[in-house]
Amino acid sequence: MVKFKQKGGSRLDIRDLEEIENFYNIKLPEDYKINMLEYNGISPINEVYYKPSVWDDEIELFYMLPIKNGSSTVETNNVLNDLSSYPEKHLIIGRTKTGGISMSFKEKEIGGIYVFYSDGEIHKIAGSYTEFLEGLTEEYL
């Protein structure tokens, strides 16, 4: 089982999550909110990987951003309140060794987890935050 440590400087309360929802005019998925209330961002204790079913390479997870209370947060990584920056209609929620992790808020894809890169490449890798976390492994496949 993959073990994590808290990434953010301190824990959140429900008001912090409501602020993000109100600022971006979104409804965060329950599984994501529960994880953020417990950890406020996560860093794996050991190296962890995610193996998407859509290609052969693994993705190495660096961390999932804290909502607030850190040097690099969901707040600081998503500067426009209309989610119009790249990736459009996505909230940046984490970092990999070579790119970013985002959560979709597009109408039919809400809560989907994506990996994106600075060259514009973007791929859906999980249907939900829970599916993504459950797919993490310490084994390089």
Describe this structure in words.
- The chain has 141 residues and is an alpha+beta fold.
- The chain has a single domain, classed as 3-Layer(aba) Sandwich (SMI1/KNR4-like).
- Strand 6 (100-104) and strand 7 (113-116) form a beta hairpin.
- The two termini are 15 Å apart.
- The chain has helices spanning 14-24, 30-39, 74-77, 129-134; strands at residues 4-6, 42-44, 48-50, 59-64, 90-96, 100-104, 113-116, 122-126, 136-137.
- It has four helices and nine strands.
- It is globular and about 40 Å long.
- The strands form two sheets. The protein has a seven-stranded antiparallel beta sheet with strand order 8-7-6-5-4-3-9. The protein has a two-stranded antiparallel sheet with strand order 1-2.
- The mean pLDDT is 88.
Cα distance, first to last residue? 15 Å
Total domains: 1
The helix tally amounts to 4
**Percent of residues in β-strands:** 25-35%
What structural category characterises the helix and strand content?
alpha+beta
Helix-strand pattern: EHHEEEHEEEEHE
CATH topology name, in short, is SMI1/KNR4-like
- Major sheet: size, sense and barrel closure? 7 strands, antiparallel
Give, in spatial order, the strands making up the sheet with the most strands.
8-7-6-5-4-3-9
* CATH homologous superfamily annotation: SMI1/KNR4-like
Runs in which pLDDT lies below 50 for 5 or more consecutive residues are none
What coarse outline follows from CA principal-axis ratios?
globular
> Mean pLDDT, as a whole number?
88
Rg from alpha-carbon coordinates: 14 Å
The level 1 CATH classification is Alpha Beta
CATH architecture: 3-Layer(aba) Sandwich
Which percent range fits the helix content? 10-25%
Instruction: Give the beta-strand count.
Output: 9
